[in-house]
Amino acid sequence: MALADIIKRTCKKLGENNKPTYVVMAIATVKGICRPTFTMMDKTENPETKKYTALREGLTEAIAIPAYWASGELAGALAKKVFHKDRALAGRAEKNMMFIGVCTAALLIIPGLCSVAIKPIMDAIGLKAPEDKKHPKNILQEPQTTYIPPTINPVTHKNVFPQMYSYTNRPQSGLRVGGL
Known about the structure:
The protein is an all-alpha fold.
């Protein structure tokens, strides 16, 4: 048996029984292994940050795999139930609904589960997010203002208020419209 025949048979078998749930679960498994590994291999990052990030990425994928499976299978079962009379349509509807279920898991279910579960798990393990010493926590600070008191006009002997009494000491940057 030639190598070409083995490849042909494998591709045919995968193409006949390929569910969207299996594909996404395989991708999540690889991400759950590779992303934490590559994070830990980063030589430039703080060791505490690496450990926290790698564990968080691994937990995210550990939550994602069963969520993908459950949502895909439930959506496929729903399609089978709805289209049970038309067998030809039921097969296509099942695959399409599995795809929609997996997309729903990626868009809504997994982020929701991760936001609920990861912080308590990390706290139970005893890992806290490392503080970033390069950037202060409160980046947005009130601009400092300078008060310019009114002056007295020598002719009328009345107070003259300046046009603008407040100046900011922060640089003016960003998109300028209509100017140089």
